[in-house]
Amino acid sequence: MPSKHKPVLPADLIAEWPLPPSATLGSSVRAKGLLLEVRASLPSTVKKSLDVVAGTMVLRMPVEKRAEFSKASSIVTRKLDGIEDLPVIPREIEDILSISTTERHRWLKDGRLPSAGTRTVKLRGRARKITFHVFSPRKVEDILDDDLVTTWREDDALTAAENRRKAAWKAKLARADKKAKETGTESEEKPNLVGWDAFEREGLLR
């Protein structure tokens, strides 16, 4: 009895676009964000045919959809032109720089992490919109190259230690003042000198 041959299935149509490091900044989260940005321009029936595999954007469709494949390929090629300049959103910068949300907020507020503007989006399936800061990919690249995150964390640690010392000093003075009022004597912790408060605020004794 002759053996049955399995039918040969037609190969899929495949197009690939390697994503440059200047676009992904070494982040899989950023690569996913770029994918979503490009998918948004594709017809709904084609969106899931585009994916990111090992830093490469891949479009895969059945051969019978050659016309849709050609159209989708043109759209992807056009959207990827200049994609390395697409602003970096919060979840991406946190992954790229390996920082926490608290650090992002702190450094954005004090100006160390410069904002490139804001972006407003509507949450899927909801009427509410949210607005958030975005960042220049070239600025983020500079922060990476100069290892500024390490410097900022060291500065923050020094500031936190100084704040703890100041808080401890103020608490010590408060206890001394309270004791002095209770006993009716002058506190020995805080000399009665003109300008002492300003001197104390500057932390010149510490």
Short key terms for the protein model shown above:
alpha+beta; 3-stranded antiparallel sheet; 8 helices; 206 residues; 3 domains; 13% strand
Polypeptide structure, described:
There is one protein chain. The chain folds into 3 domains: 11-86; 87-146, no CATH class; 150-201. Helix content is 48%, strand content 13%. The chain is built from 8 helices and 5 strands, in the order E-H-H-E-E-H-H-H-E-E-H-H-H. A 3-stranded antiparallel beta sheet has the order 1-3-2. Helix 2 packs antiparallel against helix 4. The relative contact order is 0.10.
- Write down the domain tally: 3
Q: Approximately how much helix is present in the residues? A: 40-55%
Question: What is the succession of H and E elements?
Answer: EHHEEHHHEEHHH
Provide the spatial order of strands within the biggest beta sheet. 1-3-2
Which structural class do the helices and strands define? alpha+beta
Give the overall average pLDDT: 85
Strand percentage lies at 5-15%
The Cα radius of gyration reads 29 Å
Q: Work out the helix count.
A: 8
Q: Specify the biggest β-sheet.
A: 3 strands, antiparallel
From the N-terminal CA to the C-terminal CA, the straight-line distance is 97 Å
Please count the beta strands (DSSP E, at least 2 residues each): 5
Apparent shape: elongated
Say what oligomer this is.
single chain
Q: What are the low-pLDDT stretches, counting only 5+ consecutive residues below 50?
A: none
